[in-house]
Automatic annotation (TrEMBL):
Residues 45-400 form the Sulfatase N-terminal domain. This is Arylsulfatase A-like enzyme. PROSITE patterns: SULFATASE_1. Keywords: Calcium, Hydrolase, Metal-binding, Signal. Residues 1-33 form the signal peptide.
């Protein structure tokens, strides 16, 4: 008998043991480096997370924008680290915010789509599907670790009288829009402070009213403005929270509504752009408020957002908190396609494919800038593949808190300039039930997408090599059957049944104990 055949099992065992030893050594090295990174943070830092709304990947200076001026974000990038492969959990508002707050991906999150519970008029305000009681969130985690927790801006995860109220989900203080639909008007009649309505000096108007292009006057466009601009109020409350909790540690989540439509911003931010663009009035034909100068207004909204980031950085420096405050900036999803926004004109997502509501890169790849003087290396860039549901484990490691079963990983080693200690992940998983039902997986250089799954449970995969095809144009799926089988296994592993029928498009077993959501 051939001696090689007799030795084959022993050779396999030796190879397997060697491979196992290598993997354990690699894991130990990464774990050791992560512990060293954690030790580098000797004091619980203040954490400020600034969240834009519908801001495209390339709509700020650090990411190549040339028509819109963002000097404060330019400065933030110079003084910190810019990420080039950072993803939202979902391509629309509510699920992205749920995944950020809970550290879950689209296959595990409780909220996976926009689910309206009321109408747009004041008397119809009902918010969105609330987070359930017992949800583990970032503010709850940090509050347990001794942090004061505050939120400013758009919540979208439950009204004041629901289980999803910000105060019931871990925030000590809240000020802003509870209902996403109300947040589509920058001159609302009221905002919310904690669980109480706070009136603003604005009259109600219907933001979905359309104007007749043949008859519209300057006065008609002026009707869609007011006296008190909601983001002004939010910034003031945010800066006051920082001042009040300057002794720290504090966590402040600033979820601005900019530059989400409607197109509304104070005149002084429009003026610098007037005459630069060949623009025509927007009469409301695609929804949201009419606007006489849509291009200049949109640019002005992003410049306004940029200015608020500058005010926050200046306040931190003024209070002497720079070296113990980490500031992070990102957006919930890609640029919108309606309301008078012209993504092509601004090259809002550069050469990425897709916009808001798409799981292609333009819908989910987001700007992400991190600034922490003395800790995060200045003027650096990282191509680490990361996601917003990484914030929970990252903030846990920053604060010494304990995260409960997040889908993400801590990015702290990368933040601190120690990439050798960064834990890597095999893939990112995205699941989005709207626009036909979509699934996406990012795995190394590969990006895989399935579309129209509500109607086609066995929809075909599209596979792209992002290292050569960032625009996701050349479908390579037929050439990689083994990889496609691996993708199917990932879907089986990551998808958990949704709790309402409309979101259950991956698994053929449909639930029957709940109604379809209202839009």
């Amino acid at each position: 008998m051939n001696k090689d055949l007799l030795c084959a099992p022993e050779k396999k065992i030796r190879v397997c043991l060697s491979l196992l030893a290598f993997m354990l050594l690699a894991f130990a090295n990464a774990s050791f480096a992560q512990k060293r990174a954690a030790k580098a943070v000797k004091k619980q830092p203040n954490i400020i997370y600034i969240y834009a709304d519908d801001l495209g990947y390339a709509e700020t200076g650090p990411y190549g924008q040339t028509k819109i001026k963002t000097p404060h974000l330019d400065r933030m990038a110079r003084e910190g680290m810019k990420f080039t492969q950072h993803y939202s959990g979902a391509p629309v508002c509510a699920p992205a915010r749920c995944m950020l707050m809970t550290g879950k991906n689209g296959g595990h999150a409780y909220i996976r789509g926009n689910y309206g519970m009321g109408g747009s008029r004041d008397e119809e305000e009902g918010g969105q599907m609330p987070l359930p009681e017992g949800t583990f969130t970032i503010p709850k985690m940090l509050k347990n670790a001794g942090y004061a927790t505050g939120m400013i801006g758009k919540w979208g995860l439950g009204m004041n009288n629901s289980t999803g109220s910000p105060l019931k989900q871990g925030f000590d203080f809240y000020y802003g829009y509870l209902d996403q639909k109300q947040a589509q008007n920058y001159y609302p009649t009221h905002l919310w402070e904690n669980d109480q309505q706070v009136p603003l000096n604005n009259s109600f108007f219907d933001i979905n009213e359309k104007l007749d292009p043949a008859r519209a006057t300057d006065a008609d466009f002026e009707r869609f403005k007011g006296k008190e601009y909601a983001p002004d109020k939010m910034t003031s409350k945010g800066l006051a929270f920082i001042e009040q909790h300057r002794s720290g540690p504090f966590f402040l989540y600033m979820a601005y509504t900019l530059p989400h439509v409607s197109l509304q911003v104070p005149e002084r931010y429009i003026q610098p752009y007037l005459g630069q663009f060949d623009e025509q009035p927007y009469y409301g034909q695609q929804g949201y408020a009419p606007c006489k100068y849509p291009l200049s207004t949109y640019a002005g909204m992003i410049s306004y957002l940029d200015e608020q980031v500058g005010l926050v950085m200046d306040k931190i420096k003024q209070l002497g908190l720079d070296e113990n405050t980490i500031i992070l900036f990102s957006s919930d999803n890609g640029t919108t396609f309606n309301g008078g926004v012209q993504a092509t004109f601004f090259k809002s997502v550069a050469n990425l494919r897709g916009l808001k509501m798409d799981v292609f890169e333009g819908g989910i790849r987001e700007p992400f800038i991190v600034r922490w003087p003395g800790k995060v290396p200045a003027n650096t860039s990282s191509d680490l593949i990361s996601a917003q549901f990484d914030m929970m484990p990252t903030f846990a490691e920053l604060s010494g808190a304990r995260a409960v079963h997040p889908d993400g990983i801590s990015l702290l080693p990368t933040f601190l300039g120690k990439p050798a200690g960064q834990q890597n992940r095999p893939y990112l998983y995205f699941e989005y039930p709207e626009k036909g039902g979509q699934v996406a997986i990012r795995m190394g250089k590969w990006k895989a997408v399935k579309l129209n799954m509500q109607k086609q449970k066995k929809a075909e995969w599209q596979l792209f090599d992002l290292s050569r095809d960032i625009s996701e144009q050349l479908n390579l799926a037929p050439a990689y059957p083994g990889l496609i089988r691996e993708l199917e296994e990932i879907v089986k592993k990551e998808h958990q049944s949704a709790h309402i029928n409309e979101w259950e498009f991956v698994d053929s077993k449909m639930k029957t104990n709940s109604a379809s959501p209202k839009k």
